[in-house]
Specification:
This protein is of the alpha+beta class. The chain has one helix spanning 52-115; strands at residues 5-10, 17-22, 119-120, 125-127, 132-139, 144-153, 158-160, 167-169, 174-181, 189-198, 203-211, 214-222.
Length: 223
């Protein structure tokens, strides 16, 4: 490859003089000289060598930057570990709470079983002469306290007595809901929901159906 040539025009002392230089030459300029470089010329500059202080300064800066990066990575790792540890602690506490809730529900269920009433009907019937009826609430469970009823169907077909206070129904005891029907009892249909609670104040409701003089206890729900 042929070296390119740079032509310099020196105007010092009013005399124009061409100077031919190879790209391999070292060029030192006086600021008073006029430098004309052709468009297709290639100039290679040589940087001044670093001093010892500058050299070690660059190394110290590079090492300092690397130490900073390592420290930042360590900080992020520590934060991640701390966050992970907190998450594990929170999860552990939540697991303990869930276990306590399960134990509490199990304990409550056992308590309810020891105080739960069981209503049914052993003797319900009617009088076809005056259309009076009675629904007997027998209890073969623990103590119950009857607190009233709600009509679900058959509003105009019957009436039942109501009390001003809650009525206890002992184990193996009973009470009677007495009333009358507008038509013949064996041609009457209605449905009621009776409310009661036990001695621990757990509440219940039982749906009772009167269908042509037949009484059925359809379902009981614990509230």
């Amino acid at each position: 490859m042929q070296d390119k040539i740079i032509i310099l025009k020196n105007t010092k002392n009013g005399i124009i003089k061409d100077t031919i230089m190879s790209v391999q030459d070292t060029l030192r300029l006086d600021l008073k000289q006029e430098l004309i470089i052709p468009d297709n010329a290639t100039i290679k500059t040589i940087a001044e060598p670093l001093t010892g202080i500058e050299y070690w300064g660059l190394w110290i800066a590079a090492i300092g930057g690397l130490v900073g990066i390592i420290a930042a990575i360590k900080v992020f790792k520590d934060l991640f570990k701390r966050d992970e540890s907190q998450q594990l602690q929170i999860q552990g506490q939540q697991d303990q709470i869930n276990e306590l809730v399960k134990l509490n529900k199990l304990f409550e269920k056992r308590v309810r079983m020891t105080v739960k009433p069981h209503l049914w009907s052993n003797s319900s019937g009617y009088n076809g002469t005056d259309y009076t009826i009675h629904i007997q609430l027998d209890n073969r469970g623990e103590m119950a306290f009857y607190s009233g009823f709600e009509t679900l169907e058959g509003d105009e077909s019957f009436t039942l007595q109501e009390w001003n206070q809650d009525i206890p129904i002992k184990n193996d005891g009973y009470i009677r809901l007495s009333g009358s029907t507008t038509g013949h009892p064996n041609q009457t249909y209605f449905k009621i929901k009776v409310f009661y609670y036990d001695k621990e104040n757990y509440k219940y409701e039982t749906i009772i159906e009167w269908n042509n003089a037949r009484v059925r206890f359809l379902e009981t729900n614990e509230l």
